[in-house]
Structure formats: structure tokens, C-alpha cells
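Quick one: Class I SAM-dependent methyltransferase from Flagellimonas oceani, C-alpha cells please.
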Amino acid sequence: MWFRFVSYLKFLAQSTNHHGVHSPFVFQYVTRCLYSQKKLHRNKSINVLLKTIDYFGLQNISIENNTEVKELVKQTFPNTQFDKNPMDLLFVDEMDIPTFQKIRSEGILHNDSLILVDSIYDNKEILEQWKRLIALPEITVSIDMYHCGLISIRREQVKEHFTIRI
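--- reply ---
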């Protein structure tokens, strides 16, 4: 509990809103998606997941280890396909470097794929895992939203990390 409190204070001190974003891709995502008035779910991570699927029109999704969220996505977006490669979006509880490298080498991700990692501040180990992951050269865009984190491997994008309040 103490870790989450202190890490949240640090997050607030480092975070910004859309005014601190200089990447057109991320600025559009933050202003048109994350900051849209639509509230699709009370859980912030699930709300980000649903808004992201809607904003990008994502079709091929994988939701790891959460049948409740998978059912919610099926109900909200009936045309969504699950676990079909290559994936547009992968929603996971945690992501480490070996797992990322494995799915990358297997061709599960494409250039515009997104990985949404839930609860990146659950504990110190998961936060450190997140930091090591976003330091990889293949990860070009990372967005820390405290409740979850989004990573992308867009080759045309300059490597940048954003810490955004939602």
C-alpha cells in the first residue's frame, strides 16, 4: 500500500496532460481518445482498453487471463476477433522482456500493434519490469497512465516516453 501511495505521488509530479505531448500520433490519441467524454467502464484500465479499441477501430485482439474483460469486449464490439494473428492489440496483466521478444519473433505483432499492460504500479517488481520493457529499442512509444501502460512498436516513430494523467 505504501509503495502505491508514494509511486502515485511521483507519477503526479512527473505526469502531464496533452499540452506536454509533441508527438502528433500520441497527441491525437490523448485528446481524441483518452480525454474523450465517453465513459465505457468505471475501471480506468478497462475504460482505456475499450476507448482504444473504439478509437483505432481495432479488430484482432488478445486479452490474456481475463475472461470477464474478454466478454465485455465481445459485447461492446461484436465484430472483434480474438487471438487471430497478427494482433492489433494485446491486453495483459504484465509483460516482461522474454515474453515480448517471443511474441515479436513469432510474428504476433505488426508495426501498428499496441500492447496495453494493466496495473503497472501494482508493486515495485512490476514497475521495474515495465521500465526495462520500455527501454528496449524496439519499443518506440510508451505511455504511462499510472493505472495502465501502452506500448507501441511503430518503426516510423521516434522513440519517446510519455507520462499522462487520465
